Amino acid sequence: MITLLLLAITLGKVVELSKDEFNTLRDSGASMSVVFYAPWCGHCKNLKPEYAKAGAELDGVVDLYMVDCTNENNGGKDLCGEFSVQGFPTIKMINAEKDSVLDYNGAREAKALRSFVLYNMKKPFKDHKTPKVFLEATKAAKEDGKLHLFIVTESKAASSYLFKLAKKISDRMSIHVLLNSTADRIKELVDGGLEKHVSVGKLSLFTIKKNAMESFNGANTPREIEKWIDNSSK
Asked: Where would one find the signal peptide in this protein (predicted)?
């Protein structure tokens, strides 16, 4: 069982779970997207390639799982009863950010599934909802003496890359994100004293440690961003 769990954690693929494996992962607190299905179900067969595509797109971010509700030998049938599964496929997010169990009722397409998972999974960064809260976080960061990374992006939703980056560096620094940074929201940040660190129409990154602030001015590529972060954390 340990070998299978290690594979599930490292490969980012869609993995079928037994009841024991499911319970171990759930108890770890990790966010899990799970499809409860039956092998004979036509809708389940149609979902599989889309779910696998979503799993590939989320590789390195979160793993996707399936439970066979007809399997009595590995406890899958009991598990589906525990979650009151009445139709197939049933898709749930376990250990979501705001709910212990969250049902998915959207389109059975990779893009929609991916968006659902990214929006609802526990985030490895602080998702500040307003410029005011973001500005308050910058002020607090100057006082605690630790390293903080601040990211401002026009995207309305966090990208897979942002999740991967945050997971990779979260043990070295606190990460703060402001999404959906329209011109008005950027203006609020500029008026709040960040005129040297943010601008409209671009991804803005800067670090704070004590009173020192450093902005990223390199090419907007994963390699250059991570190189800058590595240098900032030394």
From this structure: 1-16
Cβ neighbours of residue 204 closer than 8 Å, sequence gap 6 or more: 150, 151, 152, 153, 181, 197, 198, 215, 216
Question: Is residue 8 scored above 70 in pLDDT?
Answer: no
Tell me if 175 sits within 8 A of 126, measured CB to CB: yes
Mean per-residue pLDDT of the chain: 89
Digit-coded pLDDT (tens) for 163-194: 989 989 999 999 999 998 899 999 999 999 99
Structural domains in the chain plus CATH codes:
14-120 (3.40.30.10), 126-233 (3.40.30.10)
Q: Return the number of other C-beta atoms located less than 10 Å from residue 228's C-beta.
A: 18
Q: What are the b/e assignments for 51-81, b being 16+ CB within 10 Å?
A: bebbbebbebbbbbbbbbbebeebbbbebbe
Distance CA 178, CA 182 (A): 10
CB 14 within 8 A of CB 64: yes
